[in-house]
Design a protein that fits this description.
Chain lengths: 386, 42
């Protein structure tokens, strides 16, 4: 290479695909700033997508050694450190009290995980039709987990099963979480009658003593850890964060978990995920399919929750407003707010927010457990065919 | 066994597992609520 070529190496190595990735990164940054769609994640991801698609990709590989972003990826994503640390912050921000007033709502946290498993089947079905896509069961599970509506859980599953798909899966997960106010209402309206949307639900507050709130995260950790041991890092640290909050004696740590820890890890997580979006991996048909299937996952999560509520109403004397079922996804508190907003649109005296919040909190538990179960079940199922 | 069959099994065991876990948490919560309602002063 001549001195002149070396001097203009960046220009000589520039590819038109970089421009496409800059446009994609730009759209994510635009959505974050102008539309306020999950800006904490979409902005760093968008910038990371631009950063990694510079000639020579020095942030990823530098002089044949891992670059700074690859070091962060290896240390924080492949080891699951970043998503798991974020769970401490989420736990510290979560209040399980509404669940004690309306415990029945916990079942919607399970029903609204339907989209995960439906999407796994959809991926496998599409793969049968178009084998060139080359999705394996592990890929299908990683794509399906977008339906957990829970970014860190999606990242943990994808980084273990399909690291090559981590970029599009993360972008889909966070984008659709931001789009929950647009995705859920039409699905809810399509599956419910006006009469059902008008159902009122009495709410009586239960004063939960402090000791219950302290014991609860410990019991959840033990139960989940026994049922799905692989979910212990996720649910364990989620509950640890919650215990810090509920203990009442660790106010500094509680604030640190909610603010400093969550902010620093989110910052590093976003940009690291963004730098996995190298054009060779991202500009593929698989990415478009993943984005489409992610939407299917969210739609069928919502449908699963709503239809389960209607099913319960067949046997229950105290009818549940089926819209509550849609709040069983993990997108907290957006989903609960949407359900309350829709209820108010039909009847301005219908208050179902607390029940919706209960379902929404249950969705956080359900999504983490679903992630843990997928992580343990898929390798086991694969041993059945080998 | 095809991937599709495995997918169906994943759905059955996965959704079943999530429901089972949350049913257990429901039991725990109901137990606590029962204790709290019986003895509200504690």
């Amino acid at each position: 290479m001549s001195a002149l070529e070396k001097l203009f190496e960046g220009i000589l190595l520039f590819r038109y695909e970089y421009l496409i990735m800059y446009a994609i990164g730009g759209v994510l940054i635009y959505l974050a700033i102008a539309k306020d769609y999950e800006p904490m994640l979409l902005l760093p991801i968008g910038f990371g997508a631009i950063l990694t698609n510079l000639p020579l990709n020095m942030v990823w590989v530098q002089h044949e050694a891992p670059g700074v972003m690859q070091l962060l990826y290896n240390a924080g994503i492949l080891t699951e450190l970043f998503p798991v640390l974020i769970f401490i912050g989420i736990g510290a921000m979560t209040d399980f009290r509404p669940l004690f007033s309306t415990p029945k709502m916990i079942f919607f946290g399970a029903a609204a995980q339907f989209g995960i498993f439906f999407t796994v089947l959809a991926v496998l079905g599409i793969n049968e039709l178009v084998p060139s896509l080359g999705f394996t069961l592990k890929d299908a599970a990683s794509i399906g987990i977008i339906g957990a509506a829970d970014g860190p859980t999606s990242i943990v599953v994808a980084s273990q099963f399909s690291p090559k798909l981590l970029g599009p899966i993360s972008v889909a997960a966070y984008s659709y979480m931001a789009l929950v106010p647009i995705i859920q209402p039409p699905v809810i309206r399509a599956l419910t009658s006006r009469k059902e949307r008008l159902i009122r639900m009495p709410f009586s507050q239960v004063d939960v003593p402090k000791w219950v709130m302290v014991v609860f995260p410990v019991i959840v950790t033990v139960v989940a850890g026994i049922l799905a041991p692989i979910s212990a890092p996720l649910i364990g640290l989620l509950m640890f964060g919650n215990l810090i909050k509920e203990s009442g004696v660790l106010e500094r740590l509680n604030k640190a978990a909610q603010n400093e820890l969550a902010n620093i890890v989110t910052l590093l997580l976003g940009i690291t995920i963004g730098t996995t979006m190298y054009y060779e991996k991202f500009l593929q048909w698989q990415t478009l399919v993943i984005l489409g299937l992610g939407l299917i996952a969210f739609v069928f999560d919502t449908a699963g929750g709503v239809l389960f509520a209607k099913f319960l109403n067949l046997f229950s004397k105290n009818k549940v407003n089926p819209m509550i079922g849609a709040a069983g996804i993990s997108a907290f508190p957006m989903s609960a707010r949407i359900v309350q907003k829709m209820a108010t649109q039909e009847d301005d005296q219908n208050f179902i927010l607390m029940q919706a919040v209960s379902a929404n909190v249950s969705g956080q538990l359900g999504s983490v457990i679903a992630g843990g179960l997928v992580l343990s079940l898929v390798p086991w199922l694969l041993t059945l065919i080998s | 066994m095809t991937n599709m069959t495995l997918g169906v099994q994943l759905m059955l065991y996965g959704l079943g597992g999530v429901f089972l876990s949350l049913i257990l948490f429901y039991g725990v919560i109901k137990l606590f609520v029962g204790i709290v309602k019986k003895d509200p002063k504690k």
